[in-house]
Specification:
Largest sheet: 8 strands, mixed
Structural class: alpha/beta
Number of helices: 10
Number of strands: 10
Distance between the termini: 24 Å
Order of helices and strands: HHEHEHEHEEEEHHHHEEEH
Length: 290
Amino acid sequence: NDDINDPCVFNAASLDLQNSIATHGGVTAAQIQESIRKANEVVSIIRHHFPGALGSSEILVRVKNVLETYGADNILLTQSVCPDEINHERGDITNNFIEEIGGGKVFHLGGLAGVPFTGKTGFGAYSAHVASGGHAFVLQAPHIGMSNDLELGKYSRDGQDHAGSACGAAVGAMCHCMAGKPMPDFQMYEDLQMNYLIHEIGKRMSALNACAEGNDRQAELARQTHQIGKDMLEQCLSTEFGDANSMLFVLTGIQINMPFEFEDYFQPLSFDVRKKDGSVIDLYQDAFGY
């Protein structure tokens, strides 16, 4: 089906064709059809493995609509995402949120694979910076790449002639466990984050081995890594900040580094708001409607 039913498909195909025109002076009808086919194939794979995933710009619009409903302005943003540079490019959800929700500011909680390795101390330091009457917003997500050959768990980086792992730490931890290597010693402080990931991925190898090798297993690895990060995040969160009306918004999911001319996608997996009275309100349906 060569119809376009996703604005990100349209944008990606349009940019691809613009580049062809700039380089070659024009495009043929066959090239237009191929650009649309290729873009639709990318989105079809993403929708299959990450149901509900949307372009970063659409996620931003939906989240801002919910925040406006709650009258939540004066927000201090924190993010627990992997430091990989492909997660922090113009148009990525991270940068969109910094500019449009965080007012250009962000406190970083995350380390490898988006796990909040700064821990309770990091969250405590962050939340202590929230203004009186202000609110806190947490974005937590691992990431997964898609290469130009449409392989999940890989990414075609600028200036390199081959695709590399993304997330490299998550893939590396899984490969360590699949090879049957011994669990690393936590006393090896020079690589503490990776050692933690290997131990946690090791606990989840039955779920990973149950998946077919390739895109199925890489998608499951992203889901398992998300759960590792979310489990740690829940141990760190607190509403002891701001004043009696301050709220804590928490959005978690999977950041998807897209190939070609696509903006990055994001699969939201949980979204809620936590109030000072201990109540937790699920915002997922309000924001994403599925």
